[in-house]
Amino acid sequence: MSSMNNSMAGRMAERFRGFLPVVVDVETGGFDDERDALLEIAAITIHMDDEGWLHPDPVVSTHVEPFPGANLDPRALEVTGIDPDNPLRGAQHERTALEHIFQPVRQAMRERGCQRAILVGHNAAFDLGFLNAAVRRTGNKRNPFHPFSCFDTATLGGLAYGQTVLSKAVLAAGQTFDAQQAHSAVYDAEQTARLFCGIVNRWKTLEDLELRQLTD
Q1: Cross-strand partners of 96
Q2: Among this protein's residues, is 183 annotated catalytic?
Q3: Does the pTM of the predicted model rise above 0.90?
Q4: What CA dihedral angle connects 190, 122, 134 and 140, to 10 degrees?
């Protein structure tokens, strides 16, 4: 890693007090994180470029097998369009699925000098609840995410754009949103990552402008 990259890695860690923001979206069999199945999970780590702007990394995702005895609410499946019995889903056991997501997160943490990952989500408590429940069920001891702290783009979207619904916040930010692709973990994570980076970068623009005014 070059000295410049090392500098950016250090600044990334400093920007969020040692936390690495990781956007996570889950699709589930309902709203109860203890009883309802985790069916899809997608994660996107965030990096900082040489100018100090945030950008999303490529998405990592997997379909997940419902855990034994998991509830599958037909209304939730209708919204997501997921068929848990479809063999073409290529779903992984929860333990394997979590490690598939956690491994690149831990690698990004090392590269960027961060001590912990912090979940970024739209209505983040929902995603964090299902993630934590899966960690408990599988006995995973290497969960990189903080167990209760998170960044919520519903709150940030309300602050920055006056919009708390993901699609409306994305549109208010001047981006596009395809409702036909919504309720896919990959698509929703990608949109949430763009929204999060856009809001943080917008704040940086304001800070840079203020600094220029002070030095002029």
Answers
A1: none
A2: yes
A3: yes
A4: 70
